[in-house]
Specification:
The complex is a heterodimer of chains A (310) and B (510).
Chain A (H helix, E strand, L loop, with lengths): L7 H27 L7 H19 L2 H25 L4 H19 L25 H5 L4 H19 L1 H11 L1 H6 L4 H27 L11 H11 L4 H24 L5 H19 L3 H7 L13
Helix pairs in contact in A: 1-6, 1-9, 1-10, 1-11, 2-3, 2-4, 2-9, 2-10, 3-4, 3-9, 6-7, 6-11, 10-11, 10-12, 11-12
Chain B lengths: L6 E12 L2 E12 L3 E5 L6 H8 L7 E6 L2 E2 L5 H6 L2 E4 L11 H7 L7 H14 L15 H13 L5 E5 L7 H16 L3 E6 L2 H7 L2 E6 L2 E6 L6 H9 L16 E10 L9 E9 L3 E5 L6 H9 L9 E3 L2 E2 L5 H7 L1 E4 L14 H9 L6 E2 L2 E2 L1 H14 L16 H13 L5 E5 L7 H16 L3 E5 L3 H7 L2 E6 L2 E2 L3 E2 L5 H7 L14
Helix pairs in contact in B: 3-4, 3-5, 11-12, 11-13, 12-13, 13-14
The chains are: A mainly alpha (310), B alpha/beta (510).
Chain lengths: 310, 510
């Protein structure tokens, strides 16, 4: 085994790329769940975003337009979920699962003509001074725009939830929708907006997979990324920075285990492949082991349908 | 009230109908500035719908309102708040995971910055003798303190009319006294208060005027100070009430023996039970009082078997059952009815027959070799409906379709019909109209006279004083030593319930 083949600089740089799709989907789902809605359709929204972004980028030649189309397409898909669960009071778990199945099938249909094509490459940003720094420059400051967008989103979601009135109302709706309604807040409207935000984020995450990470289109290419994003939200106790930690941990171990496989580590491949899932969840579970505090940050109305009785 | 009073709010001919029920029919009354006006009526009389219309949560079908001479048609609570109408809700409209200042901010239109808001909360809370720390999580506050949050949220908006929907149902007598001082101070400053309650003594102590509602209509108005509580009750119910009869029999041997019972709550904001001791003899009713959230739910769960404990912490007829589950305890002779009717005592979408089976299967032998004996189950369910006067189209009706009072009669009846030796009930008459409540209380007394040991957990002190032989109070998960009910004063009971829960007594108008 030759560990010297693993270059820590490249490892960290590729960790960020590897974690970004999950991070985008997870931060969107965090907002959805904070509003009290459990949308299990993340996987389906991601893959629809992946094909929408891929197709648009291939047709127009612009990755940026691809990302915009991905966000719009997945937000539109999430609107189906929103109408079913918020107006027709369908069960959120069942509807979310159905959305995933629908998204997987629908994306396969949309993507039939795009298998094997190569998308236009997404340029990496050149940030003056920072990108030219030795070591840190290649590690942190030579990525494409979306990596920084995802980090900015985490910071924005954290600040919005913590410091702004919009964030307070969102948390209030997720905490006790009856009380929020009694105070005159539009529970359903707020939740629909949150669901669409979550959809748009998942779409961006999917498009990042098909346009940057892989980059090509294959059926079912999200391969469970949406599910790990859901798990990271829960085990990260609905806290934005923990979600970032979880996503980067998962991305990091995924990249590391590939490198270890390549270096010929004498451990069965299956164990290495499952290690990102196991370690990420283990770490987050230990961090949220304090039951009472974890329970506090869980939105109390999560997954419950709201219907104004009077 | 002074001689220079002006009309603040008039309500004329307000009507609101829901499918199948007219909640309010042609309701008219008026409130003067600075007046404490009471809306009196039983559950389902239409009080809540009426105040929701005044607060803009519900739109009336017909009728009009004026506020200080202007036409008043609030389309949303926002508009009502802007017009100077504020409301404290019956079930607190608070967010447990948010702190006091955040909760207050959510109830305001244009809240100032958090630091400034905290400052104002401190000022107002001190001016009205309601000390409160803006940074504390609401989930950690006592019921009395939570109500302060709601009241301060209203006061910060300088309301002209403060609506209070059943504000004292979760308070100890001492906490009620503090609240009343605040309300009297507000009234003296010119704020009118619309006070909804079915606690008649409180209305007599606090209110200037009362409007009595029955089945959605105004049936009477009066000055409550000039009426006795009994007269008010009869105006409310529209019939004469007979208090339950007690038998004078001496109690028998101990049937339920709880010693050193401690248990953690399954709910993150719940209260752990700490070292509870009690014994109940056959033929005796033990009343357990306490403000909501002091361990009542947990005590019921620990007695019914939903929380398991050490084997000898709970004994029935001398046999340790602490480690047994609910059905095994039923087999030994303990039945129980929790507070929450829909979803805990009864499965909402299942029929009455099925609900009868769920609890009665063990003692009434409604199953054999894994198969359900439907004929026997239907007979059992029909018997409950008949004996306890449950108003339902039939035993095939879903539990959800019954009114609260009728479902409660069914749930209590189902447990009492199983020939139990120990009965544990939590809030047996909560949200039940006076006539149904009286019949449930009588049934509990009858079962006790028939030789059962009965534990009644309730927040209704009058109820406990009426039916219990001995009385104890839960406070912070600890149970006070039981005392005979006879000769207990309300003050003593209040102290057993924890007094003012460490809240400072108001220091207004010394």
């Amino acid at each position: 085994m030759d560990l010297s083949a693993i270059n820590p600089l490249v490892l960290i740089a590729s960790l960020m790329v590897s974690a970004t799709p999950i991070l985008l989907a997870a931060i969107g789902e965090l907002v959805v769940e904070k509003s009290g809605v459990l949308n299990l359709g993340v996987e389906g929204m991601m893959i629809v975003g992946a094909i929408c972004g891929f197709a648009t980028a291939v047709e127009t030649g612009s990755p940026l337009l691809g990302f915009i189309a991905a966000a719009a397409g997945s937000a539109l898909l999430s609107l189906i979920f929103a109408v079913l669960t918020q107006f027709l009071l369908a069960n959120q778990v069942a509807t979310g699962l159905a959305l995933t199945l629908f998204g997987l099938g629908f994306s396969a249909m949309l993507g039939q003509g795009y298998v094997g094509l190569k998308p236009p490459s997404t340029p990496t940003l050149h940030i003056p001074v920072l990108s030219d720094l030795p070591v840190v420059g290649t590690m942190l400051f030579s990525h494409d725009l979306m990596v920084y967008v995802s980090l900015a989103l985490v910071a924005a979601v954290w600040a919005t939830l913590k410091y702004t009135r919009v964030g307070l109302i969102l948390r209030a709706v997720g905490e006790n929708h009856d009380a929020a309604h009694a105070l005159g807040y539009k529970v359903i409207r707020i939740r629909i907006l949150a669901i669409m935000f979550g959809g748009a984020c998942a779409g961006l995450g999917g498009a990042y997979l098909s346009l940057v990470r892989v980059p090509q289109w294959t059926e079912g290419m999200t391969a469970g990324a949406g599910w790990i994003a859901l798990a990271i939200v829960v085990f990260g106790s609905w806290k934005p920075w923990r979600v970032l930690l979880g996503a980067y941990l998962f991305g990091g171990i995924s990249v590391l285990q590939l490198n270890l496989q390549a270096a010929g580590l004498k451990v069965p491949v299956q164990y290495l492949s499952m290690s990102p899932y196991l370690i990420t969840i283990l770490v987050l579970v230990i961090m949220s082991a304090n039951r009472s505090r974890a329970a506090l940050s869980a939105p109390a109305s999560l997954g419950r349908s709201f219907h104004a009785s009077h | 009230m002074t001689g220079t009073e002006k009309v603040l709010l008039t309500v004329e001919g307000l009507t609101k109908a829901y499918p199948g029920v007219v909640a309010n029919s042609n309701v008219s009354f008026r409130i003067m500035e600075g007046e404490v006006h009471s809306l009196l009526g039983e559950n389902g009389a239409g009080k809540s719908t009426l105040v929701k219309m005044i607060y803009g949560l519900v739109r009336p079908d017909t009728g009009r309102m004026t506020l200080r001479g202007q036409v008043y048609e609030p389309s949303a609570p926002k508009a009502a708040r802007a017009a100077g109408v504020a409301m404290v809700f019956q079930h607190f409209s608070l967010f447990e995971a948010l702190n006091v200042a955040e909760n207050v901010a959510l109830g305001m239109e244009n809240p100032p910055k958090q630091s400034e808001l905290s400052q104002r909360i401190r000022q107002v809370s001190e001016a009205y003798g309601l000390p409160l720390d803006p940074a504390r999580l609401v989930g950690d506050l006592s019921a009395g303190e939570r109500q302060r949050v709601e009241i301060i949220r209203c006061l910060l908006q300088d309301p002209k009319l403060l609506i209070m929907d059943e504000p004292t149902s979760v308070l100890t007598p001492q906490e009620v006294e503090i609240l009343f001082k605040t309300l009297r101070q507000l009234s003296a400053e010119g704020t009118a208060i619309l006070y909804i309650s079915h606690k008649l003594e409180e209305i007599r102590a606090l209110c200037d005027e009362a409007t009595v509602l029955r089945r959605g209509k105004v049936v009477d108005t009066c000055q409550p100070r000039e009426k006795s509580a009994r007269e008010l009750a009869e105006m409310m119910v529209g019939e004469t009430l007979t208090p339950p009869e007690r038998s004078g029999k001496a109690p028998g041997p101990v049937a339920l023996d709880v010693s050193g019972l401690s248990a953690r709550s399954p709910n993150p904001f719940g209260t752990a039970l700490q070292n509870i001791h009690l014994t109940v003899q056959r033929g005796e009713i033990l009343g357990i009082a306490g403000v909501a959230g002091n361990g009542q739910d947990e005590l019921l769960l620990a007695l019914s078997g939903e929380i398991r404990t050490a084997k000898d912490a709970v004994k029935i007829d001398g046999k340790g059952v602490g480690d047994l589950g609910p059905n095994e305890r039923r087999a030994v002779g303990l039945v129980s009815a929790p507070e929450e009717r829909l979803g805990h005592a009864a499965a909402p979408d299942m029929s009455l027959t099925e609900n009868a089976l769920l609890s009665g299967a063990v003692r009434k032998e409604l199953t054999s070799r894994g198969f359900i004996d439907w004929a026997k189950t239907r007979t059992f369910a029909a018997g409950i409906v008949k004996e306890f006067d449950v108003r339902t189209p039939g035993i095939g009706t879903a539990a959800r379709a019954l009114s609260g009072g009728n479902l409660q009669k069914f749930v209590i009846g189902r447990e009492l019909s199983q020939d139990p030796s120990v009965i544990v009930v939590n809030q047996p008459t909560w949200g039940v109209d006076a006539a149904a409540a009286a019949s449930i209380r009588q049934a509990l007394i009858d079962r006790a006279s028939g030789g059962a040991a009965v534990v009644v957990i309730s927040q209704d002190l009058d109820e406990l004083l009426e039916i219990a032989d001995r009385f104890a109070a839960l406070n912070g998960g600890r149970l006070s030593a039981p005392r005979p009910t006879q000769g207990l004063t309300v003050d003593e009971i209040g102290l057993m319930m924890g007094g003012a829960h460490g809240m400072e007594v108001a220091h207004v108008h010394p």
